[in-house]
Structures are given as C-alpha cells and as structure tokens.
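#struct-pred

JT: dropping the chains for the assembly here, can someone run the whole complex?
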Amino acid sequence: MTKDNTDKLALEKLNQLGKELMDQLDRKEAPSLKIPSRSRSNVEFDQEKEIIDITGKKSTRSFINASHVRKFMQTLLVAQASEEYIKNGRTVGKRELYYNLKHKLTGTNRNTWDDDDESSAVIDDLEAILDIPRSQLHISAKSRGSIYGDITLKQAGDEFSCKGLGKGGWAIPGNVEDVEIMDYNAERILFIENDAMQSRLIEEKAYKSLNALLVTGEGVPPRGVRRFVKKLSEETKLPVIVFVDGDPYGFYIHSVIKHGSMAIAHINDRYSIPRAKYIGMTMDDIDKYELHNVTEHLDKGAREKLKHNLSYEWFKYHPEWVDQMKKMQKKGVRIEQQALANKSLEFVADTYLPEKLENEEFLP
Amino acid sequence: MTKDNTDKLALEKLNQLGKELMDQLDRKEAPSLKIPSRSRSNVEFDQEKEIIDITGKKSTRSFINASHVRKFMQTLLVAQASEEYIKNGRTVGKRELYYNLKHKLTGTNRNTWDDDDESSAVIDDLEAILDIPRSQLHISAKSRGSIYGDITLKQAGDEFSCKGLGKGGWAIPGNVEDVEIMDYNAERILFIENDAMQSRLIEEKAYKSLNALLVTGEGVPPRGVRRFVKKLSEETKLPVIVFVDGDPYGFYIHSVIKHGSMAIAHINDRYSIPRAKYIGMTMDDIDKYELHNVTEHLDKGAREKLKHNLSYEWFKYHPEWVDQMKKMQKKGVRIEQQALANKSLEFVADTYLPEKLENEEFLP
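RK: done, full complex below.
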C-alpha cells in the first residue's frame, strides 16, 4: 500500500469510529466502545494462521460507567489526535504523544493522564479497535536498527539506495508505513540479531556474495524494524532468513519475528512473518563446526528463559525447536553468532552461511 | 587524517612496541611493558585540557613475573592480531576479537582467555600503551545511532550524502576512522540524546532551518558515535551543541561528550569535545516555557545519579552545572526533551531551538 492509501484507510476507520459514537448519541444511547480483549488469558497460538493471536472476546468501554469514563475519554483523545497527525503529515513517538496530549481537563484539576502507561494502553486499545498498527495512526516505534543491501527505497519524496553507504547502512526510522520499494536485486532478507554481525557481513560484502538484504534490529527488534521487514517480505516475496545466537534469547527473537509476541497479540498479523526460517546458530553447529571451545555457559537467566520457551504453545508446535532447547539444556551451553570468528573472521560469510543457504539447512 | 595515515601510524606504533621488546631480549633483559595506570585512583580532571585524564603513573608488566605473564601474553596476542586486522583491512568487534583469539595454548589445557573481561582489559591497556584509540587498531565500537544532514561522506570507496534518506539517516558504524568528509553545508552539529527527538527534527526538516547536522547516539552515545562527532568537530571546526533531557542522566551525557568518561580516561582526548555547549533542557526552561505540568518526578535512581554528578570535579568546575543540579534537587523534578511537544509538535524546531541558538543561550 502506498502512503496515501494507508492514510486514507486509517482516516476512514477513525471516521467510522466517530460515526458509530454519534449514532449511539442520536439513538439516545450511552456512547460505548467495543474493545477486543488484550488480556493474557485471551491470547492463543492460532495454528492455522501460525501467529500468536487474540480470541474474539471483546469488552465494552462505556462513557457513563464511572470506572470506564477516564479511559473512554483517553481513547477518544488519542483517536482525535491521530486524525490530526495524519492530516498534518506528522508522526509522533509514544512518549511525544503522551506529552503532546497531557493537559488539565477543563474546569478540573485533573490531567488527561499522569503517566505514559495510561497513554500506551490506550494506543494499544485503539490498534485493537481499528485493527490497524499504530504506525498507520502516525504513532511511531523506536527508531533503531539498519539495513544494508541492493535495494532502492523511497520515503518522504526521497529516493535512495541502501548500499554504497560505506560501512553503515540506512537507519530504519520508527515509522516505515510510507516507505516504497522502487527496485531491488536480492534473493533473500537476512534478519541478523547482532549489529556487530551485520557489520562483519557488510565488511565482507556479503550482500553481494549472499544476494541478501542485511537487516539488524540490534537485539530484540523494535516494532519499526519488524514492520519494515514484514513490508519488505510481503512486497518482494523474498524469503526471510533469521540469523541469531544459539541460545534461548536467539530462539525467542526468532519466535517473535515468525509468530509475533504476546504483548501485541492484537495486531501480530501486521508484524509477524510465519514463513521465516531459522538458519542458525544451532546446537548441532557446535559439533559440525567444532566450536566446543567457544561455547558459553548457560547462566541462570538463560536457563529460566529456556524453560519459559518450552512452555509456550508456539515452541511446542515445532519439534525442531523443542529438540534444540533440550540439547541446549543437556549441554548447558549456548553458542553466539560471533563464535564463528574462532574459525576465521571471514568464515561466516565464506563458508557457514553459503553452505547452509545452498543446502537449505534451516529450522522452521 | 586519512585512513592510510591512521593505519600507518598504528602499524608504526605496533612495530615500535615489538622492537622495544626485541631490544630487551637482545640485551638479555626480561621483556616487559610500561603500562599507564588506568586505575580509578589515577584518574583526574585536567583543568587545562578540560578533559578527564590519567596521571603519568605507569606500572610494569613483565614476562618473567608469574602474576604478569598471562596478561603479558594476552597483550601481545591482541597487538599481533591488530597488526593483522590492519594489514587485511578488516575491523573486528570486541566480542568478535574475543572469539577470534580464544584458543588453547600449545601443550597446555589452558585458553588464551576465558571471558571477555580479560580481552577487554587488554584492549584498554593497549590503547593506553600506544596512545591511540582502539578503532585505529581496527577494533570497533558498537554500531548505534545515526546522522541526518547536509554532509557528504566517503568510506570504503563509497561517497554518499546523509540527507535525502527519507525519515532515517545514515547508521553510524562502529568504526569511523576511515570516514572522510567530502563536503558539507551546515553551521553546527546538534548532538541529540533521544532518537525520537532526532526523528522529530528530521520530520520538521530542521537540518535546513537550523543549519544543523542532526546526530543521535540513542541515549548514552557509544564510543563509535563519540569518535564520529569528535572527528566531525575537528575537521569542520563546527560548534557542537548538546541537546539532552533536563535530568541527571542528560547532564551526565553532556559531561561525557564534553570532558570524557572515567572508564576510558586513558584515551579521552580522542573522544571528548571540551568546547561542546549545552542548549537544554534546563530547569529554567520549565518556568520560561511554562512546562510545569509536564515535568516528571525525580525518582530514587535519578536522585542518586544527581548526587554522584555533584561529587565530580568536572561538575564542580562549572558553577552553571552545579546551579542546575541544585535547582533540580530543590524542585524534585526533571524535564524531558519531548515535553516540549506539550506546546506543539513543531515548537522545538520552530521556537525553542531557534531562539536559543539565536541568543546563544547555552550552558558550558
């Protein structure tokens, strides 16, 4: 979708919401909103769509209910502001929105909100009500991470390439809804956990030798990066290959990229990429590439994370993931991406990744 | 300095180090290294240079001292590897170096090192011995942060502009030693704490209206970003204006940019920018711009940080900083950059920054 189309859709949805409330008033009903329940108990793994989703359960937020009225007001406050942001072509951060809309309510000594937990919850609610990601309401995510590769993008009237940028890439902004893909020459998107590994692959000119767009979210990717890769993958149809540390955190990052997160279960379908594949690191790599001397001990936090992973439905859904977790538990070690440097600096770009890509040696 | 020159200098220094050790052996002396002491007790604020520095005190690391020999070996291991990295035109991350050089010592069951605290300490030692930043030894910092503005850079054979990149900028890589400035059109460098504020200023096209290069290190800037701005400021002679939250962390970030940090006191002169100025946020902004309703309570952590700040020599050196800390302590509040959105989204770009720049309303 182009920027104009997403803006148009968002405005339509916001107008529809306003219209419904006006209709209720016309019918002399108390205005109320139907809000899909985002509570953890309402989150489930949808095996058909292969995403972490919410069930259909909804709650009602009513203007004339004393315990609802504050949140009701806040919801409309954000809806109204979003309309304004879209019309003015501005995008705000969450924290910026919090400050932008914080003010004393007329005739009272009370604020619209007192901390940004309140505004954040309402932004999530509005996403769930309208079924569009917050970025389409012009509320942006944290800008972090970058892309390097042979792709030409267009945003805000600028057309630019993501290669030929020295050793850095294009810094992925917090809102990518209006990014258009003009042209690209790549066979895959490589979603890399560590920025240092991306740096290695940039230096080895792996974008060329692996025909890959090199993206990193610098650890757990923020929403902006996930939305960006989701858009890339949808519009180019390129496979998404996830390259993370062989540890409970790496697998968790992969699970978030592939199936989404519990925190945004109400809108995961706009972020998650069920067909993403896991290239490494795996527990089997340790034997295959003789990396025994560069494993690291699984500490207490990692062991806890591992147990949590094993308890999730979407982990149990993949016997290959469970197998990796069990091997990790048994060996008591983890293996980082950068441990491959023990073979040689170029090993990852010259041997490890090309071999696995060639043989399609992936986990789901 | 161009890349070739910094490489040449580093190789000369490494060779000199090797030559000294060889000379010692020729003289039948036990090989030993003189290492500037990096211990906290050896750190002081140099009022003349206006940087946090180490005193001249040195310690000796000897090959024939049983408690030195391991570190001695590690120091030479990194020196040797650096030479190789430079000659091969490769740059490694700290963690990558750790793995790259971890191996069993011949004829023993012991590793060159067992965790990266060991390799990190030795990298710092080598910086201190050779008096060049690790990036010139081709050991790079974390890549984080970005720049947006009217400047053309060259790195790794690529020439590129840092404007015309949509809503993102150029992702600053972990090593910027070989970045050349080809051309620029700006009157100042604006060093911004929060990436969301940089996004706001990019959206408002403030690089044009403020004639500024917009740089963010996303919080406490990593070494790569500091080194980048240091290079920019030295080669362009542009003023560096720091724009951070009005809280103990914001002031601390400013102090690190301006005077350096205790952690790398042995090499601060390659990172710190003593002539950097502080534009905001200040405690006085709260009254001047009527921001009382959007201050935040100083929590316990912030109060502790504030007390630490007040105990530092380089804070006491600036009565204006002490004054701000005292006001903050008295009011018990902090004021974030983004709180300016309470006036309007464009206020920061249209009013706040232009007014302060026009009137040169800075703290040191």
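JT: nice. Chain B has a mean pLDDT of 96. Chain B touches chain A through 55 residues (CB under 8 Å).
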